[in-house]
């Protein structure tokens, strides 16, 4: 049977890798929707190649531009979040790959869940912001959330065949980023330094999150909601080689880990073919080439964002939303050279203290809290800049 696929964020790294996998193993897949925010040239190229039923883009100007260049009989062009969500509901794709960066991916992903589509989840922010609501919606519609990011995909694989009560803890591996052994002044770290990840080639936002290790903190929150484990039963270990993508420890003291290449195509293929496994069209990991596997504890003092994430995971329903929104503002400001590297956790902590205990009964409450946090983060950022200038 042909599996219909929708890709939200098709022009980003995960979206391009998804198309690469389908290109390499085309039998059994049909692309029905491709969505991008601003990359109209790349989206046009993808549409001409894959002929999706629907193409979605952010602005009306870009939508008009695309309509002029695409055959409307083959591909309908829609514009903006509302029209994208309507298209998702109408198409009811078998699998929706959620790869829109940031909290912007939440509404389209929730609409896909409500439409009965399984989700290939590459957007961890959606699960961080509204994990409880997403998990509940998934249970109600009977769909499966299939994590695509390598760590949670590894956990998904390790947990196959294991009963929940047989697992003592989940263990997320982390490369440690560019500053694992850094001995310089953390206050003086520049965006250019922080963007140089030692293992992965990623976008700027996630590269900075890796440098602060906020990415691992967010992954703890995501794992908490995805797999229903308490935050204290989810550990982070630093594994510089990035070969073991994650592992579990069972109650009898055994460890079960997933090893693989540092290539997103592998977890994407797993999600595309689930619940089956199909032969990979790519060269695999050769374990006979002298693998070196090292594991170290994560340093919460050097990387305070880790502890902030555990605090948020154990807090109220609004706390993860607050942390994610504050972090997005702080990272964007750091990339613009407006704050110091060490100001990122300061802004995150201040916002979490101010708004983390806000009550949230539904998604609309979370969206409102997200906006309040962004306003608060910008206010805190301005005060930091004022103090810095006085110094």
From TrEMBL:
Ranges where the 1-deoxy-D-xylulose 5-phosphate reductoisomerase N-terminal domain occurs: 5-131
Catalyzed reactions: 2-C-methyl-D-erythritol 4-phosphate + NADP(+) = 1-deoxy-D-xylulose 5-phosphate + NADPH + H(+)
SUPFAM superfamilies: 1-deoxy-D-xylulose-5-phosphate reductoisomerase, C-terminal domain, Glyceraldehyde-3-phosphate dehydrogenase-like, C-terminal domain, NAD(P)-binding Rossmann-fold domains
Function recorded in the entry: Catalyzes the NADPH-dependent rearrangement and reduction of 1-deoxy-D-xylulose-5-phosphate (DXP) to 2-C-methyl-D-erythritol 4-phosphate (MEP).
InterPro entries: DXP_reductoisomerase, DXP_reductoisomerase_C, DXP_reductoisomerase_N, DXPR_C, DXPR_C_sf, NAD(P)-bd_dom_sf
Domain 1-deoxy-D-xylulose 5-phosphate reductoisomerase C-terminal positions: 145-227
Superkingdom of source: Bacteria
Pathway listed: Isoprenoid biosynthesis; isopentenyl diphosphate biosynthesis via DXP pathway; isopentenyl diphosphate from 1-deoxy-D-xylulose 5-phosphate: step 1/6
EC number: 1.1.1.267
Residues noted as binding 1-deoxy-D-xylulose 5-phosphate in the record, renumbered to the chain: 124, 150-151, 175, 197, 210, 215-216, 219
Gene Ontology molecular function: any one: 1-deoxy-D-xylulose-5-phosphate reductoisomerase activity
Top EC group: oxidoreductase
Pfam families referenced in this protein's UniProt entry, alphabetically: DXP_redisom_C, DXP_reductoisom, DXPR_C
Annotated residues for binding of Mn(2+): 149, 151, 219
NADP among keywords: yes
Annotated organism of origin: Sulfidibacter corallicola
Residues annotated as domain DXP reductoisomerase C-terminal: 259-374
Lipid biosynthesis recorded as keyword: no
UniProt family annotation: Belongs to the DXR family.
Name by which UniProt lists this protein: 1-deoxy-D-xylulose 5-phosphate reductoisomerase
Positions that bind NADPH: 11-14, 38, 123, 125, 203
Cofactor: Mg(2+); Mn(2+)
Keywords: Isoprene biosynthesis, Magnesium, Manganese, Metal-binding, NADP, Oxidoreductase
GO biological process, alphabetically ordered: isopentenyl diphosphate biosynthetic process, methylerythritol 4-phosphate pathway involved in terpenoid biosynthetic process
């Amino acid at each position: 049977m042909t599996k219909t696929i929708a890709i939200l964020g098709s022009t980003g790294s995960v979206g391009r890798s998804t198309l690469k996998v389908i290109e390499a193993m085309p039998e059994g897949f049909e692309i029905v929707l491709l969505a991008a925010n601003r990359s109209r040239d790349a989206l046009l190229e993808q549409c001409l190649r894959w002929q999706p039923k629907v193409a979605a883009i952010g602005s009306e100007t870009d939508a008009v531009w695309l309509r002029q260049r695409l055959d409307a009989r083959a591909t309908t062009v829609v514009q903006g979040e509302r029209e994208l969500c309507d298209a998702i509901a109408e198409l009811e794709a078998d699998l929706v790959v959620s790869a829109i960066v940031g909290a912007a991916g939440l509404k389209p992903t929730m609409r896909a869940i409500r439409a009965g589509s399984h989700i290939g989840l590459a957007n961890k922010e959606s699960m961080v912001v509204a994990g409880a609501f997403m998990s509940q919606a998934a249970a109600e519609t009977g769909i499966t959330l299939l994590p695509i990011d390598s760590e949670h995909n590894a956990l998904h694989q390790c947990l196959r065949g294991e009963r929940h009560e047989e697992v003592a803890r989940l263990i997320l591996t982390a490369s440690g980023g560019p500053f694992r052994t850094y001995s310089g002044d953390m206050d003086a770290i520049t965006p250019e330094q922080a963007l140089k990840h030692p293992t992965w080639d990623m976008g700027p936002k996630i590269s900075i999150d890796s440098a602060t290790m906020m990415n691992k903190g967010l992954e703890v929150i995501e794992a908490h909601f995805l797999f229903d484990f308490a935050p204290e039963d989810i550990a982070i270990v630093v594994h510089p080689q990035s070969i073991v993508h994650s592992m579990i420890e069972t109650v009898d003291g055994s460890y079960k880990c997933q090893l693989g290449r540092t290539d997103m195509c592998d977890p994407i293929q797993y999600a595309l073919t689930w619940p089956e496994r199909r032969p990979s069209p790519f060269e695999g990991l050769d374990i006979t080439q002298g693998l070196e596997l090292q594991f170290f504890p994560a340093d919460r003092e050097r990387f305070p964002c880790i502890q902030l994430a555990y605090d948020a995971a154990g807090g109220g329903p609004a706390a993860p939303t607050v942390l994610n929104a504050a972090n997005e503002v702080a990272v964007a400001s750091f990339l613009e050279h407006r704050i110091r590297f060490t100001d990122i956790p300061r802004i995150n902590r201040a916002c979490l203290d101010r708004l983390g205990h806000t009550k949230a009964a539904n998604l609309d409450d979370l969206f409102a809290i997200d906006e309040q946090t962004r306003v608060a983060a910008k206010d805190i950022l301005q005060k930091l800049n004022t103090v810095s200038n006085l110094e």
